[in-house]
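Tokens in:
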């Protein structure tokens, strides 16, 4: 991702900024498209992961749909070229204003998360003399002892409709004349790398599909949600997720009926590896107990490490040639003569103790002005940035 030319280019640019490798993004999208096309699967990009216009432009150019979670995302998706017939709208708290935006835009469907929401969408559609297509988001409520997907799938989660409410759902769907039932929707969590979890999801989807069919509903769409994870530890050697194995699980374990569509809502897997947060060292504080590298980026630019204790690889690009992790043992012995490897807490400038990207990171001895990259920052990075401390809005730089 960072050749010498790119690193010298960074030296001329004010930091911090997000760097997007658009070539890698396209390769990732291509890999996903090829793997999903093989089975005729439909992918909606979960644009909450990143709605940078250049990212949206690339994603939509491959013909993916958009999975939106606000009225603004619906409007932005369509304004950026996504086909409205491939836009879905999820979220536990859709406001009337947002539902109206989506009705006016004639999107493909609402992923509905409560019985009350079904009634509201029906009323608003009726007022416009329209029919709203709806899919029911089901909370799988799976016992953690037998299945792995506990992240969003239990009764105490706010997401989705619990199975004990499904009779109400069926009744409401029958009585609401301005709703058209298209299918069932699930989303069990994010950063899932164990394919066994998806196998368990398939079993649950099959059961739910049967439940609806037994009651006379035709399930045209099976929407499995998103969640495919990426390798945060190896952003160079494992930068494109294994889409083939992922889709194959669904091909093998879902009971797909003739004419039925299978939908996916991938966010992170499509965009995470294609960007890094680039920052400079402002100050180096060498202490008796701790050494601190104080960067000019902090939790305001990338909050995942602070909010979720998430690991994102940190590299000193200015001393990349000296980085022991990039070299063979003999090479690193030679370079260790020149450069020391030290442990640092890599922190930001924000007035919060939690503003720390990672503690005790082993790095080549680093100096004021060194350029750092925090890798795998393309998903839930730029979009979660804030202006706290009245920081400048974060800028973006793109590969040529
Ligand atoms: N569909 C639904 C209904 C979702 O709630 C999400 C993500 C996705 C699809 C896309 O999931 P993905 O493929 O990106 O895993 N900010 C957190 C992640 C929050 C995910 C929220 N929902 C993070 O930085 O790890």
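Residues out:
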């Amino acid at each position: 991702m960072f050749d010498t030319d790119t690193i010298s280019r960074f030296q001329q640019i004010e930091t911090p900024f997000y760097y997007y490798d658009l070539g890698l993004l396209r390769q990732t999208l291509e890999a996903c498209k090829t793997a999903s096309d093989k089975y005729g699967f439909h992918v909606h990009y979960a644009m909450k992961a990143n709605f940078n216009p250049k990212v949206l432009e690339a994603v939509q150019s491959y013909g993916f749909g958009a999975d939106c979670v606000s009225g603004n995302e619906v409007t932005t998706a369509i304004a950026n070229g996504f086909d409205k017939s491939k836009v879905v709208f999820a979220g536990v708290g859709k406001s009337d204003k947002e539902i109206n935006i989506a009705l006016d835009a004639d999107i493909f469907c609402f992923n509905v998360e409560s019985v009350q929401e079904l009634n509201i969408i029906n009323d608003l559609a009726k007022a416009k003399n329209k029919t709203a297509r709806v899919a029911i988001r089901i909370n799988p409520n799976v016992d953690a002892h037998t299945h792995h997907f506990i992240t969003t799938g239990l009764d105490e989660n706010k997401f989705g409709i619990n199975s004990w409410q499904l009779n109400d759902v069926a009744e409401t769907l029958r009585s609401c004349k301005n709703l058209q039932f298209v299918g069932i929707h699930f989303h069990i969590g994010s950063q899932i790398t164990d394919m066994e979890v998806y196998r368990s999801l398939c079993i649950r989807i099959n059961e739910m599909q049967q439940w609806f069919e037994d009651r006379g509903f035709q399930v045209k769409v099976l929407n499995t949600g998103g969640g495919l994870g990426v390798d945060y530890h190896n952003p160079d050697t494992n930068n494109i997720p294994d889409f083939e194995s992922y889709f194959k699980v669904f091909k093998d374990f879902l009971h797909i009926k003739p004419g039925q569509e299978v939908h996916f809502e991938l966010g992170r897997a499509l965009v995470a590896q294609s960007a890094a947060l680039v920052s400079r060292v402002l100050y180096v504080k060498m202490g008796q107990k701790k050494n601190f590298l104080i960067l000019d980026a902090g939790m305001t630019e990338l909050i995942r490490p602070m909010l979720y204790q998430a690991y994102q690889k940190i590299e000193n690009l200015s001393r990349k040639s000296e980085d022991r992790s990039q070299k063979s043992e003999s090479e690193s012995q030679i370079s260790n003569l020149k450069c020391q490897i030290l442990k640092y807490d890599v922190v930001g400038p924000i007035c919060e103790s939690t503003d720390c990207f990672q503690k005790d990171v082993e790095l080549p001895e680093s100096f004021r002005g060194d350029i750092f990259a925090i890798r795998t920052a393309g998903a839930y990075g730029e979009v979660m940035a804030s202006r706290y401390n009245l920081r400048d809005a974060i800028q973006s730089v793109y590969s040529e």
